[in-house]
Design brief:
About 35% of the residues lie in helices and about 15% in strands. By secondary structure, it is an alpha/beta fold. It has an eight-stranded parallel β-sheet with strand order 3-4-5-6-7-8-9-10. α7 links the parallel β9 and β10. Bound molecules: zinc ion. The site of zinc ion has 5 residues, from loops.
């Protein structure tokens, strides 16, 4: 799978071990001490799974991960891009990654999974870290990306007061501008909010929650923080933190979210779920989070298979819509 066309972005010395280091195997690898790894079986899921937030272009071998997604039943992925970073890499390469994934499955005698290579949709938005790089030129480029029918939303956008890589005032301004792009384009927004939930909420209240939908990504806090977002009708996506050993409060917060607004995601290459922390996260890791979520949500009236079907339908209903009238008018 190490084709010339796949771009290797990270230097080998400082990166985490990745499943792609092991060739196209259909197991997972848990990092142990002294450079050793233990093979882990994948959870057996009774339904399809979506990864609603991955950064495919940050992986060394996106094609390899898409091939594994096919095998593990992850048949929809939304990949996040940023107009101030190399968003063109994803827009130009996603179809190639899918083709290479199909080829790799055939080469590994796994032809029966060819058709299961995930459908991809893309989101584009200026991350709060990059807010100080946002200019009119960047916005024009962002609008051009949003006009492409493959684009399903604006994200990730929001506020990050933990790292403060951009001044807060600039973050707020750029967040507002992109909320207004959502009003214009009728696309949903996918939010990255860190240590700024109250402020982000009041900005959205002032600017108006976009009608096409608001997704709060990688939720890893408690019910109290979550409740206003749920009350405002937002979708809530959980990734690796739902599986972390010390995150009972995150698992508890699931209970405030109506089932039809719950989503699964990875934030790949970050936020690897248990029991695989220490490995680079790929979109296929979403099955560990989905497994945990299905077990938490299941009750007497709803079995795990029904929960998984609903979670998958939620992802598609938010991220796999037909083009908006604005996209049809502006299609590049
Ligand atoms: Zn992200």
């Amino acid at each position: 799978m190490h084709t010339q066309e796949t771009i290797n972005q990270s230097s080998d010395s400082d990166r985490m071990p990745s499943e792609s280091d092991f060739g196209l195997t259909m197991r997972f690898h848990q990092k142990r001490k002294k450079g050793k790894f233990r093979e882990i079986d994948a959870p057996q899921l009774a339904g399809p799974v979506a990864d609603t937030h991955a950064h495919l272009s940050m992986l060394n071998h996106p094609d390899y991960h898409l091939a594994r997604c096919a095998y593990f039943g992850v048949t929809f992925v939304c990949s996040i891009t940023d107009p101030t970073e190399n968003d063109a890499l994803t827009y130009d390469s996603y179809a190639l990654w899918q083709r290479q994934a199909r080829k790799a499955l055939c080469a590994a005698d796994l032809d029966e999974y060819r058709e299961a290579v995930p459908k991809l949709r893309l989101a584009c938005g200026c991350h709060p870290h990059n807010a100080s790089r946002y200019t009119q030129e960047v916005e024009d480029h962002l609008l051009a990306q949003l006009s492409q029918p493959i684009t399903c939303g604006i994200g990730e956008i929001g506020l990050d007061y933990h790292y403060d890589f951009s001044p807060r005032e600039v973050q707020r301004e750029v967040f507002k501008r992109q909320i207004n792009l959502a009003h214009t384009t009728r696309l949903p927004i996918f939010l990255h909010i860190r240590e700024a939930h109250d402020e982000a909420f009041s900005i959205l209240t002032e600017e108006g929650f976009p009608e096409a939908g608001v997704l709060l990504h990688c939720f890893n806090l408690d019910s109290e923080t979550l409740q206003p977002w749920v009350d405002a009708g937002c979708y809530i996506a959980y990734g690796g933190p739902l599986t972390f050993k010390k995150s009972d409060y995150v698992r508890d917060s699931l209970r405030c979210v109506p089932l039809d607004r719950l989503l699964t995601e990875t934030d790949s290459p970050y936020m690897t779920p248990e029991p695989l922390r220490g490995m680079e996260c790929g979109p296929e890791h979403v099955i560990f989070t989905a497994d945990m979520m299905a077990r938490l949500v299941t009750d007497e009236t709803l079995d795990e298979a029904a929960v998984l079907v609903q979670l998958y339908a939620n992802a598609l209903s938010l991220q796999d819509r037909p083009p908006t009238p604005w996209q049809l008018r502006h299609q590049g």
